[in-house]
Design brief:
The protein is mainly α and 426 residues long. It folds into 3 domains: 59 residues, 434 Repressor (Amino-terminal Domain) (Orthogonal Bundle); 198 residues, no CATH class; 71 residues, no CATH class. Helix content is 67%, strand content 0%. The chain is built from 20 helices and no strands. The protein is globular. About 1% of the residues have low confidence.
């Protein structure tokens, strides 16, 4: 069923009740790929269009009452990475051909996956792997690793141009894992490369609001990291899934994933980042004491030396991030003035090279100014964040600014508000 087909059936469901629905292809696309939640009536019409009994519909749990959501997680196993990678690549291909509606994964399925990861030893990689294909040599793998490193360290404004190349590189690595012939060292390197690329592609999808695809890529990366015996990378990918759950207003799932990820990772910097994300999830649930414990742990772990370099995926973590995320957690707990102070301190510590992060931090600052009833300062911060996001191509940051619009509409005459609202609407 295409978006046009579904919209037509939704309108017919409304007409059978003597009502009208404004569903069209564009609105279906917003539900499908941009994280927009249909209203209660539309969800009832969607169920009827898909032949789902009305009693199954739970508008509060959209989209998890849809059939098949939560059944797409491939269990961890010695041979699971290639199927998991193919599943992720398939979601992108089906989106481009408009053959899918939504493949969301339930919170319970993600927590179960995290529990399995935490309680399962990584798979021993021994001997040569033979699929009847051509031999994969170390020189080729070195070339792929070098290419990946150069593509994934580009600044945000350049990544929008290189994203298709990274997608293609992940497809190539998947082909080699699935059909090549290689020894154990090459096998480990291929799986490490697949995990790293899948994480990067997942963040590209997440930044563009393609949440179902992002989760599939992160899950695929988890399979490769587990097969390659990289516990810290596995924890990183679980941390990404948890961050996404928090972003989508499901902090309970986020906390469940993070608690399991923390049980299976070792490096202090990795644990610090996971504790920081756990604090945000706990704060969103109003759990003050647990939030403060997690923030204290994050700050302490960041200063602990393990004698080993931090994993690449968390090497960027610094005092600036701890300060700002601590401020965000305190903001959720209602400690607005202390939160505002921490967010401002974090912004001052952030290096200029992290433009996207700075833009996100500015939206946090704008929110704290709004909570302090300082709309003029809030508008200035939000406008600067919007301009940065538009310049470097950071749609997630743009979304954060748009989420603040209803709060600014209460201050139509304040300096900067009209300009901000105009640029958001442009």
């Amino acid at each position: 069923m295409t978006g046009v087909d579904l919209a037509r059936e939704i309108r017919r469901a409304a007409e059978r009740r003597g009502l009208r629905s404004g569903a069209d292809k564009q609105r279906v696309n917003k539900w499908e790929t941009h994280g927009v939640t249909p209203d209660v009536d539309s969800q009832i019409y969607i169920a009827e269009a898909l032949g789902i009994p009305a009693e199954v519909v739970d508008p509060r749990s959209w989209p998890y009452w849809l059939p098949g959501t939560g059944g797409m997680v491939i269990p961890l196993g010695p041979a699971s990475p290639a199927p998991a990678l193919r599943e992720a690549l398939r979601t992108t291909m089906e989106r481009s051909s408009r053959r899918t509606f939504l493949t969301a994964i339930s919170g319970s399925a993600l927590v179960t996956l995290a529990s399995t990861w935490a309680s399962t030893e990584t798979w021993a990689l021994t001997g040569e792997t033979t699929h009847g294909g051509k031999a994969v040599g170390e020189e080729l793998v070195a070339l792929l690793e070098e290419t990946s490193a150069r593509l994934t360290v580009q600044a945000t404004e350049q990544r929008q141009h290189t994203a298709p190349l990274i997608d293609a590189l992940l497809t190539t690595v998947t082909d080699l894992i699935e059909g090549g012939r290689y020894n154990q060292p090459v096998k480990l390197r291929l799986h490490a490369l697949a995990a790293h690329l899948a994480q990067t592609v997942g963040w590209h999808r997440f930044d563009h609001g393609l949440h179902a695809e992002a989760s599939q890529y992160w899950i695929a990366g988890l399979h490769s990291a587990h097969t390659g015996s990289d516990r810290d990378m596995g924890a990183a990918l679980l941390g990404d899934l948890a961050y996404q759950a928090s972003w989508r207003d499901d902090p309970r799932t986020a906390a469940g994933i993070l608690e399991r990820a923390l049980s299976g990772t070792r490096h202090p910097a990795a644990r610090s980042l996971l504790q920081l994300r756990l604090a945000r999830a706990l704060a969103a649930q109003g759990e003050r004491r647990a939030t403060l414990r997690a923030l204290t742990a994050a700050e302490h772990l960041l200063d602990v030396s393990s004698g080993e370099p931090a994993p690449v995926w968390c090497a960027w973590l610094a005092d600036a991030d701890v300060a700002v995320d601590s401020g965000q957690a305190l903001l959720d707990l209602g400690d607005t003035r202390r939160a505002h102070q921490l967010i401002r301190e974090g912004q001052q510590l952030l290096p200029p090279s992290r433009a996207k992060t700075y833009g996100v931090f500015l939206t946090y600052q704008a929110r704290s100014h709004l909570d302090l009833r300082e709309p003029e300062r809030a508008a200035a911060a939000a406008l600067e964040a919007l301009q940065i996001a538009q310049r470097i191509g950071a749609p997630r940051c743009v979304s954060l600014v748009r989420d603040l619009v209803p709060s600014f509409e209460a201050y139509p005459g304040v300096q900067g508000v009209e300009e901000l609202l105009g640029q958001v609407a442009a």
